[in-house]
């Protein structure tokens, strides 16, 4: 699961990024409203965590703009403003949840889990079921019948991205951004290598889905052994 944290308090941001990565999340950080919105507009994230008071552009304005542009990524607002009016304003702008500062890391993690469950009806707790297989991202493994297939971290992140967006084409550029990060200097052909490895580990007859190549664009998960 890939998160974008837009938070201008650098010490807090760094601490949250460190904690979330230890919990297995992929996290990018922005420190002001304009750069944060630009990153969010790539639509490359599963969840946005947005501080309300930001330099250059306020959090509620960011959310309004994203929703007007059709970006439906779930948003969790972080704020010290606790009046009913402020909460209503944020939720009416398109936020999905509201967390008051200061907050415990346990509550933040619980809100993230709740929003991730809401995002897709194919998510079962921390697992994703497609076809005959169940991906357990935190364990870096796929269960297919009685077989347990071990994956590397990058294989897990790539497969999670494809499964969460089954029947949709994910471009190679989106894969690079979401799995390796915006600042990565890896070559685009690294995606082909990882797709090849996943196909070897996950034969359609065992898993009930195929990883299809959409020529010149990217890849797509399709259910069925012989799609």
TrEMBL record:
Database matches in SUPFAM superfamilies: C-terminal effector domain of the bipartite response regulators, CheY-like
Residues in Response regulatory domain copies: 2-116
Modified residues (4-aspartylphosphate): 51
The organism's place on the tree of life at top rank: Bacteria
DNA-binding region range list: 125-223
Domain OmpR/PhoB-type: 125-223
UniProt keyword terms in alphabetical order: DNA-binding, Phosphoprotein, Transcription, Transcription regulation, Two-component regulatory system
Protein name: Stage 0 sporulation protein A homolog
């Amino acid at each position: 699961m890939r998160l974008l944290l837009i938070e201008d308090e650098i010490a807090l941001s760094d601490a949250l990024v460190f904690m979330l990565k230890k919990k297995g999340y992929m996290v990018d950080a922005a420190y002001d409203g304009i750069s944060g919105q630009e990153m969010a507009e790539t639509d490359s994230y599963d969840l946005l965590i947005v501080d309300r008071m930001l330099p250059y552009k306020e959090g509620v304005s960011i959310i309004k703009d994203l929703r007007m542009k059709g970006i439906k990524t779930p948003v969790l607002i972080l704020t010290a403003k606790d009046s009913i009016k402020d909460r209503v304003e944020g939720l009416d702008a398109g936020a999905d949840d509201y967390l008051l500062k200061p907050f415990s890391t346990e509550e933040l993690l619980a809100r993230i889990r709740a929003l991730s469950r809401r995002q897709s009806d194919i998510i079962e707790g921390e697992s994703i079921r497609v076809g005959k297989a169940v991906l357990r991202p935190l364990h870096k493994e796929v269960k297919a019948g009685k077989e347990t297939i071990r994956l590397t971290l990058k294989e897990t992140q790539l497969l999670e991205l494809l499964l969460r967006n089954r029947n949709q084409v994910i471009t190679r550029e989106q894969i690079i951004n979401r799995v390796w990060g915006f600042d990565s200097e890896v070559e685009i052909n690294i995606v082909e290598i990882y797709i090849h490895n996943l196909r070897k580990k996950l034969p359609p007859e065992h898993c009930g889905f195929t990883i299809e190549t959409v020529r010149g664009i990217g890849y797509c998960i399709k259910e069925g052994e012989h799609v």
